[in-house]
Amino acid sequence: MATMKDFRTENKPTWCPGCGDFAVLAALQKAVASLGLEPEEVVCVSGIGCSGKIAQHFGGYGFHSLHGRSLPTATGVKLGNQDLTVIAAGGDGDGYGIGMGHLVHAVRRNIDLTYIVMDNQIYGLTTGQTSPTSKKGFRSKTSPEGAAEEPVKAVETALVNGASFVAQAFSGDVKQMTVLFEEAVRHRGFSLINCFSPCVTFNKVNTYDWFRENVIRLKDREEYDSGDRDAALSVMRKTHGLVTGILCREERPAYHEVMTGAHSVAASKMDLNIPREDMREIFHSFR
Amino acid sequence: MPQLTWKVGGAQGEGIDSTGEIFATTLNRLGFYVFSYRHFMSLIKGGHTNYKVRVTPSQSGYHGDELDLLIAFDQSTIDENWKELSEGGVLIYDSSRISSPDFPGDKNFLLCPVPITEMAKEAGSSIMRNMVASGVTAAMVGLPRHAFDPLIVERFGKKGEKVVASNKVAIQAGYDFALKRFGQRKELPQPQPEEDGGGHLFLSGNEAVALGALAAGCRFLAAYPITPATEIMYTALNHFPQYGGKVVQAEDEIAACIMAIGANYAGTRAMTSTSGPGFTLMQESIGLSGVTETPMVIVNVMRSGPGTGLPTKTEQSDLNEMLYGTHGEIPRIVLTPTTVTECFRYAAEAFNLAETYQCPVILATDLFLGMSKQSVPFEEIDGVQVRIERASRIGDADLAAMGNGEYRRYRVTESGISPRSIPGQKNGRFVAMSNEHDEGATEEIEDSRNRVEQMSKRMRKLDGWDVDAFGYVYDGPEESTEITLVGFGSTRAQIGEAAARLRERGVKTGHLQLRAVKPFPETSVCRLLSGASRIVVVENNSTGQLAEVIRARVGFHDRITHCLKFDGDPFTVQEILNHCNRSQEVINGWRR
User: Ranges for the Pyruvate flavodoxin/ferredoxin oxidoreductase pyrimidine binding domain (chain B) (predicted)?
Assistant: First the structure.
């Protein structure tokens, strides 16, 4: 059986020392190994930016796709071979800026994949510009006077559109993150895990210490019911989104089980030859 | 050539399409060779629409220049179409709506007033205008009184006997009225039924593309609805699921294209289908397919651009975008089938090419070829040998023989093709990377030597493909011609008829139709055009995009003239002939 080591690669990540993405990678490697998955059964699909490099450092198959397009790529991979475990991963700019449209539709489909967003509230690789999740008033190279826009409420959007699994995690708590990833991968359907993953180089506001002071854990609230979508929205509003744990979980069929052409055999494993007589019958239906 | 051309026109939503379809489908089933062309607008009700049917003694591929019979439901149908009516043509009009038809000119038409709306109301509802018109048609072209009955039962049987009966009543009313008042006025050519006595296949290019994909093992289509490509999706929805094929309506064309790339990466033969606006949105993923060396098939059914353009009209103006679109440089194949059967054959072949060369394959048609339903002999399509070649893959045994980490996905090879693993294969791990990457595909790398190696490897992949064996069809003398007509894709039938007419006049004429434009079959094009005194490049766009490619790749600048059309309609034979007549003058003008 594969161990966490099998999900590591030889190349060292090029992230800055202390980057929150190290924790995300480690938690993911640990989670898939503890679920008993083999490296060839797992595909990590990423967009671009610092977070997008995760596909290169994760020891399964990978697809380092285009900016904002990790979800449609991952959707295609899953529908191409539904037997694979598919992880989509990227940053807040990638997922909630250019890729925001895809998020809503992946949620609607309930496509069976795990979507990990490394949310650092800034554009890191391009050396520090305002991101869709930067708070209003956030100062950066592209908002010298402070950001004029409200931050996008991606998690709430996923909740409102019926996401069947929604959680938040924090790179300062790898243990909790690992458990959340395990739950998300195990979940049959779409799961979004928004991870507070601080950028230690360019974001001097939303730092590890800042999150430690401000984030609360749902686990500490005994009365919380993850089957109650309204409660999830309410807690997000009350905490200004600064909350970790499983916000919402609901069991329903995954897209590949109910879509047009759903089949128990993966598309990539189908016999492609159509009997000549079948083809002739199809031709004759066009008369 | 004995033939019959017929058209019905009215406001959109009045049953014009169903009138045309009933006539065309019935004739096809009786063994006639039929070509149908829909003229329609981007709205649901109102506006002028018409449906033209051409019946020929053999397969045609084109709806004809002239018109023998026109059925006008309203005056605007006359305004829009009277010019097309031939001398001695029959103009049937709804006298319940038009008291006296108004058309300028002194053409000699046979005017046939028929109270179409009134008769339809008498039969039960004005909706049945189309049935009255069908009956009138049957009488005037010499079809039996009950010719349409089987189709009426098939179409309306589900709605109950009463509906079937009242439709038949409407048809018969039209038939009896027209036979008594006008009698048979036009002749149909001889039907040429299939061996089993039945009709030919009645297929559009779009339907043929979807069937070709299915036969080739495509088991995934992601697309976004767009005129004129949506029938590909409909056909896939009808026939893919039975064989485990999945169809996704994506949120946009960006997602559609990239989903299909994801599915191909996972080992499934996958495609997307679209038209101009969607094709533009796919440019970034076409590049992704190129750099990650992931097979991909994209069908672009061209329509008039730019922007939203004329969404329901035909054009061939995406050639440049298909040849050059996406930033950076990638290997790609662009196929331009010229007939419905080639739509089937090339759609099937596209999947083999995509897998062999691990690059995007663009299959280009247009509204004219994609949406025009036409008679195709069963043998012609059934005779296409579809082979499924899953080349350029690495087997499990080969991977097992390697240690973990030994397999290099983007290994630099002489052919440029590197054996591909797919997720699920042990020891085959790699990252399909949109960044420049090394041979091992494990990380992005900016080293300049590696960059040159990987770029060169990708760009030489297609050197091994013999496009000259595949990429064109030529008709005419090979050594020298007075004039050679050149086109690509859907224009083959009209250019072919124009060439035939020139030959009848004693002009030594060649006809070169391109079926692949990337890679460009330049050896053949050069050979076939070098003996032509005049070269007329016929294309449905305003800048002569194909002519530009010929000039750039082959030459002959001083012999090429452009025959261009970009008003949204397909070429007529006469338009091509008119240009040919002028082309010597054009060339003389340059030489002066």
Answer: 212-456
